[in-house]
Amino acid sequence: MIDIDRRTATLFTILAPFAATSAVAQTDHPHKIPDFGHGTARDMSKVPWMGSEEIAMLVYPGMTVMDLIGPHCMFGSLMGVKIHIVAKSLDPVTSDAGLTIVPDATFETCPQDLTVLFAPGGTDGTIAASNDADTLAFVADRGARAKYVTSVCSGSLILGAAGLLKGYKATSHWSCREALAGFGAIPTDARVVRDRNRITGAGVTSGLDFGLSMIAELRDQIYAECSQLMSEYDPHPPFNAGSIHTAPDDVKQAMIELAADFTRKAGSLAAAYKG
Amino acid sequence: MIDIDRRTATLFTILAPFAATSAVAQTDHPHKIPDFGHGTARDMSKVPWMGSEEIAMLVYPGMTVMDLIGPHCMFGSLMGVKIHIVAKSLDPVTSDAGLTIVPDATFETCPQDLTVLFAPGGTDGTIAASNDADTLAFVADRGARAKYVTSVCSGSLILGAAGLLKGYKATSHWSCREALAGFGAIPTDARVVRDRNRITGAGVTSGLDFGLSMIAELRDQIYAECSQLMSEYDPHPPFNAGSIHTAPDDVKQAMIELAADFTRKAGSLAAAYKG
Questions:
Q1: Secondary structure of residue A199 in the 3-state scheme
Q2: Cross-chain Cβ contact B250/A96 below 8 Å
Q3: CB atoms within 10 A of CB B29
Q4: Predicted pLDDT at A24
Q5: Which of A94, A164, A166, B65 could form an S-S bond across to A184 if both were Cys, CB 3.0 to 4.6 Å?
Q6: Which structural domains are found in chain B, ordered by start?
Q7: For residue range B203-231, what is the model confidence (pLDDT) as tens digits?
Q8: Chain A stretch 63-122, residues whose beta carbon is closer than 8 A to a beta carbon of chain B
């Protein structure tokens, strides 16, 4: 479990006087409040700086580690949050590209009642996790009570296989989004898709957009903007090939072919679903 | 060391016939080559799909794990690459937000001659690494021979402290960019800054833009576009606060204040530099 206490203490010490100053200014010195050029001046003292969210992030062999870390980058900026990196056991878990991380909770020790349940994606590792009875039982159990049930990339296959997407709009990596229909979901082509308390992100790097949206949802927009500035999330991709709608045709054709085996496996997984 | 062999085998099997088809088409059936709507049709068979880069990514306690994983997400898509996650020892390393990863090489076992040396940033952990003699000796040694010397976020403080930025334009997180002048560097406000073989990224999430630029540099633009599509890097930040130039003034003021202690420490580190 990751407890952001040390950082929280520092941040709160710094932000509390700032927030207080802002509140006083609005009450006693209205003419001193700058407009900031953004319409109405905002009351920084009303930002919910402190919280107590319990966030469980599933990890498993063969996951795509960027699917995990984009959201983690944003969740980690929440003062007071507790982030649990959850796996079947506490053994280190190696990602598809070979990076190894250490879980800090198991399916047994993870809190029962979560604010956010999150699943990252991958390819063969994700299919394996989606066929693993223990993983599905954990996801179904915590997902039944979590305030938000979420994923990035093909992590939505795990949610689907656990029966959590039936009747919900959801998204995934472009290579396996249509498979979600097999789980009774409504595949939806957008960077971040919300349907009631199910919030799913598209492929890999969408985790940053997903994570920022989650911060605004869990706290508020000002908090999300602070996290965005601290993580300097002002993207300037040097090329314009990041979406199936914008990639050059040669690149698109090659990558659809490269992903075809996974697309087929995801389709088979969903077709075999008996939910 | 991460060897992308399994993925490489799959990818090469899939791409080789595609590339071959493309080459044949250009030779024997010129009228069948689609223009792809991007000007001249590109020869996919000439893309350097296979390589043998040796990439060392430094890790240390208190680093910001997103600084590491953005570039790793892109480096990991290079067929044939070897990625070394390097630390003082093989003991697990915990990031500033509490995520623990396992190194696979030490300063002693890391290859001597690298294609890319990379340093991630952080706050207090980065200051500590920049004051650690063993870390600086390792970075200075490998950096003297590496084809590319690189960083994301405040990782450039480590490069600077190791004497690798003297006379070079470089960037960093906005909160400590100006400190680079103390190391004899030329602080430069851009998302990715290149000066000869020094390539540095701005804060945290710039690692994705940095990583894509590196793929184009190490292979070519088509390869980078393929990696961009597979990682679905088509960013849509829900807010516009990711840069010190675009963030609302209230957010900017709060975060400059929040970062002030680190800004001061980075300045002191650089002021004490005797290179």
A1: strand
A2: no
A3: 9
A4: 32
A5: A166
A6: 49-235+248-271 (3.40.50.880)
A7: 999 999 999 999 999 999 999 999 999 99
A8: 64-66, 69-70, 72-73, 76-77, 83, 85, 92, 96-102, 104
